[in-house]
Amino acid sequence: MKQYLANIKHALQIATPIVTGSVLVASPSQAATFAFSQGDFEFSNFSQSPLEVETETDVDAVAIDTGKNNMVQAQGSAQASFVISPPEAINFSISEALGEGRNYIGEANSEARVIGKFFADAGTPFSFDFAANLNLQTSIDDRRDEIATGAGDVSFLLLDTNKMSVLDFFSLFGNLTTPDDADFVALETSDNITISNLLRDANFEGNQEFATVSVAGSLKRTFAERTDFTLVEVKRNQARVVSTPEPSTHLALLLYCGSAIGVVAYKSKRKITAA
User: Signal peptide location in the record (predicted)?
Assistant: First the structure.
């Protein structure tokens, strides 16, 4: 299990340069539109081990092309792991779409989720450290008929399992749409979460936009009574590129969407482990 977790960490280290590198190669000279969304999360230094853990990943992509001499691609990737002893969790998801020409749509969606079930007696402290990253990029050539969107969110909830109430929360989310003026990144947390490090870099202007946020922090709380609680961390990433069709091919593109031609989907994978 430790080796599997190490493999995921290694994949996380190399995946971003490989995919992001395609921005530098494909966007300026080859792809008229490009969208990229990547998120990763790591839990460490748990004060106690979970009773049971669960992981899920889901990836789907669609590429629809009704023009001539076009190129459109969409792809995603997701991995997740939650080790019970010593307790540690890590996951990431990446979505990428690019296109060249006219009359196409490309969209990729990816999701990774880790879940841990715990209990604590009255007066027992509970804590962990975490690190989160969100990376969004978009690029277009022609603002008149091209759109690129990169969106993502990285979040976790600490839930009272019996009452189904939220005890604590963390949410990092953002959206880039080029061309558009509604670009943003945002961070929201509950009172028991301390942010120790926050790095942000963004450009929301022009035909090439990006937003990168890295957050490190910790959660510390004490339960007033014996409590069963669940930690749920989810990240979702979407990349979408569209080249507006000419009037003569607009109906054809709609028909393609309706019949789901060019859709490639990967069903979710779930793994449950009990102590």
Answer: 1-31
